[in-house]
Design brief:
alpha/beta; ten-stranded mixed β-sheet; 14 helices; 14% strand
Length: 417
C-alpha cells in the first residue's frame, strides 16, 4: 500500500526512530561478518535488450553545499543508506555503488553536472564534481559503469547560463576533453549523449529556437571534428505537456523526463498506488507522441520534506510506491517499452528516478526501510535469466564505515545540541 507520508512528532524531530532499522542490514539480521579486503567485484546482470540507467545527484559529501546535506536526511532514519552517512568522494564508496548498480542490471548513470557560480565565459570549473572526479574516475571498478552528463542549467546555486561563444569555446571543449573521450562515457550509435535539464532556459539564453538549433549543430560539428562522430542531445521534459518547447524545432534528438508524474497534468486526485502507476503510463503515452524519440522514466516516489519541511497549513504532494508496487511499475514500463520499440530507437532506454535523491524522496539506493527491494525489483523484471544473487552490505564483509567526514563535522554538533 502506498504511504501518504505523515510521520509522528518524534519522527519529524529526527529522534532515533527505528534505530535498529537504520543499522546495517547484516547486523540487524544478526549475521556474522565475513572479512574481505575490498568491495566485491561486480557481477553484472544483463538487461539486454534494455539499457537501464539511473539519474544520480552528487550531493552527498559533507559540506559540499551548506554543511547540512546528511544532517537533513538524518532526521528521517528510514532513509539511511546501507553505506551509512557516506562521503561521496571516497572511491571505495563509489565501488559499492558501481557494484550495486551493475549487479542489478543497471549499466549507466545520468549524472547531474553543475558549473561553479559565476564561471560563465571562463575556463570551466565544475561544481559538485566529486562523484565523478574523486569517485568514479579513481575507483577500482569505475570503468565498468557507463555515465553521461545532464547539464543542470536551472539552479541559481550554479552557473547555468548559455551563450554561443562560451558553449563552443569553453564548455563543450571541457566536456570533450574531460568526459566524452573517456572509454566508459555513454554513447548512442558511437556518439556521446548529453542531456539538457532546462531546455526553456537554454533557448532563452541563446535568443530563440532557431539560434539554439544552430548552436547545437555547431556543437555536433565540433564533436565530429574531435573524432567523436557527433553528439546526441537529449532534452528533459519537465512538468505540464502544454508548457514544453518544440523539441524538434530546437534540434533535440530525443526526450526523457527526470520525474513522473508529480508535476504533470496527470497527477491523480485519488492518490492510490494504481492511480500513480496509471498516471506514469499516461506520461509515457503522452511523451511517445513527441516529435522526437522518447525514453521511459520510472519514478518510485516524491517526498521532499528534508529539503522543505511541512507547514501545517500547506498541502503538498508526497507519495511513495512500496517495493511490490514498484515491481508492478517495472513490469508496466517493460511492456510499454516493448510496444514502442519498433518505431522508437530510444524506447528500450529505461531511466530510473532516482538513484540517491534522499532529500526529494525519490531514491532506489539500498536503505534502512526497504533494503535492496527496489533494486531487486529491477533485476527480477529486466534481468529474468540472471540467476541467484546475494545482496551484501559493508558490515557483511567487515568493511566500512564510510561516515568519518560526517562524524567529524555534523554528528558532534548534533550531539552537543
Amino acid at each position: 500500500m502506498i504511504r501518504l507520508l505523515r510521520l509522528s512528532r518524534r519522527q519529524m524531530l529526527g529522534a532515533t526512530v527505528a534505530a535498529t532499522a537504520a543499522e546495517p542490514l547484516a547486523r540487524a539480521a544478526g549475521k556474522q561478518a565475513e572479512r574481505a579486503e575490498y568491495v566485491p567485484e561486480p557481477q553484472p546482470a544483463s538487461a539486454d535488450p534494455f539499457r537501464m540507467g539511473v539519474f544520480l545527484c552528487p550531493l552527498w559529501k559533507t559540506g559540499c553545499i551548506n554543511g547540512k546535506e546528511w544532517a537533513n536526511i538524518a532526521k528521517f532514519p528510514e532513509r539511511k543508506p546501507v553505506l551509512g552517512w557516506y562521503d561521496e568522494g571516497d572511491p571505495e564508496v563509489t565501488d559499492w555503488e558501481v557494484t550495486y548498480l551493475l549487479d542489478h542490471g543497471i549499466s549507466f548513470a545520468m549524472v547531474c553536472w553543475y558549473r561553479e557560480q559565476g564561471n560563465h565565459g571562463q575556463p570551466v570549473k565544475p561544481w559538485l564534481g566529486h562523484w565523478l572526479h574523486d569517485g568514479l574516475f579513481r575507483c577500482r571498478y569505475g570503468e565498468q559503469l557507463r555515465f553521461a552528463l545532464m547539464w543542470e542549467n536551472h539552479t541559481k546555486k550554479a552557473d547555468g547560463r548559455a551563450s554561443r561563444d562560451d558553449l563552443l569555446e569553453h564548455l563543450l571543449p571541457f566536456w570533450i576533453d574531460t568526459y566524452f573521450q573517456r572509454p566508459n562515457y555513454l554513447t548512442i550509435d558511437g556518439k556521446p549523449l548529453l542531456m539538457l535539464y532546462n531546455l526553456p532556459n537554454f533557448i532563452r539564453d541563446l535568443g530563440g529556437e532557431q539560434e539554439a538549433h544552430a548552436v547545437l549543430d555547431a556543437m555536433r560539428e565540433q564533436c565530429q571534428r574531435r573524432g567523436l562522430g557527433g553528439l546526441v542531445v537529449m532534452g528533459e521534459h519537465h512538468g505540464r505537456t502544454d508548457r514544453q518547447p518544440d523539441m524538434a524545432a530546437v534540434g533535440i534528438d530525443a526526450v526523457a523526463s527526470y520525474h513522473w508524474p508529480t508535476f504533470t497534468e496527470h497527477y491523480p486526485k485519488d492518490v492510490t498506488p494504481e492511480a500513480l502507476i496509471a498516471a506514469q503510463e499516461k506520461c509515457w503515452r503522452g511523451l511517445a507522441q513527441a516529435p522526437v524519440p522518447a525514453a521511459v522514466t520510472m519514478s518510485a516516489g516524491w517526498d521532499d520534506r528534508p529539503w522543505k519541511p511541512l507547514k501545517p497549513d500547506v498541502k503538498r504532494k508526497l507519495w511513495q510506491l512500496s517495493p511490490a508496487e514498484f515491481t508492478t511499475l517495472c513490469r508496466r514500463a517493460k511492456a510499454f517499452a516493448e510496444s514502442q520499440a519498433e518505431r522508437n530507437p530510444f524506447a528500450r532506454m529505461i531511466l530510473l528516478d532516482n538513484w540517491n535523491e534522499f532529500g526529494e524522496g525519490h531514491y532506489i539506493f539500498p536503505h534502512a526501510e526497504h533494503g535492496f527491494a527496489y533494486l531487486d525489483a529491477v533485476r527480477s523484471v529486466f534481468c529474468p535469466s540472471a540467476g541467484p544473487h546475494k545482496d551484501l552490505v559493508p558490515a557483511d564483509l567487515g568493511l566500512g564505515p564510510y561516515d568519518s567526514l560526517y562524524a567529524k563535522t555534523l554528528a558532534p554538533a548534533a550531539t552537543a545540541r
